[in-house]
Amino acid sequence: MRDHAGRRKGKEQVKLLVQSDDYGITRGTARGTIRAVQYGPVRNTGLFANMPWAEEVTEWIRPFFEHIAFGIDLNMVNGPSVLGYREAPALCHEDGTFLSIKENRQLDNAENGNDHIDSEQLYREFRAQIERFIAIAGRLPDYVHPHAYQTGKTEAVIRRLAEEYRIPYSMDFAKLPDAVMPSMGWYTFGTMEQQLQEDPLGYLLEDRTGYLKHEYGYLITHCGELDSDTLHLPFNICRLRDLEALTDPRLKRWIDHNRIELITFRDIRNQI
Hints:
The chain is an alpha/beta fold. The protein has one domain (15-79, 126-153, 166-268): TIM Barrel. The chain is 36% helix and 12% strand. The chain has helices spanning 27-39, 54-61, 101-107, 119-137, 152-165, 192-196, 200-205, 228-231, 237-246, 249-257, 265-268, and strands at residues 15-23, 44-47, 69-74, 144-146, 179-180, 216-221, 261-263. Helix 2 links the parallel strand 2 and strand 3 (69-74). Helix 4 crosses helix 5 (152-165).
């Protein structure tokens, strides 16, 4: 049942899964995500296992393993390939760095169904990223999550690996009853100046996604502190804006006032 404002009545709590993507894409994003875990509602984050500093940033977050779901963001557009050019030439440049999102999109055309990906090379690369995660973290990822460039082929590869490793696939959150998926409607995907105008806190406090009207909600953010590597990403200032919003005391009061329960993928792994 719902009240006149559309909020759900009764004793059931809204169960909100708060995720901060891109852990370790830079050291700055790792530091920001940890702050959002310590002082905010983030309980889920995924490692960029292909990055040279993946082992370093995993040690930073290891003390929080019992309190969060530490997953993996399977990535084919940022940083170096784990396999390298010799084994995955369709995915990367000769120096081993991945093709960018723009470069991948330019390869998509009508002849290949707007999906040029070599599925077998991508499978081997993503599998190598999962194996590197296991070697670094000493455990399986708590979930797998896609990063940025997504097509039917990338989706199929991720699902194949999720099934093989018996790991939850983040997008299967939609299978939960009465679930609302992420909207990320506050992002401008624009210049630094435009990103400064983003208002994630207002978006959340006004509940523009409608979390309070559902039993399960999924919130994706991109928290980070700014360092030189982060500033070179197109998605940069917005990470600081997300971190500011998620660590703002007003958000904590909103969560407490609405009796929202913060959950992880470990809590729902048997339901999706």
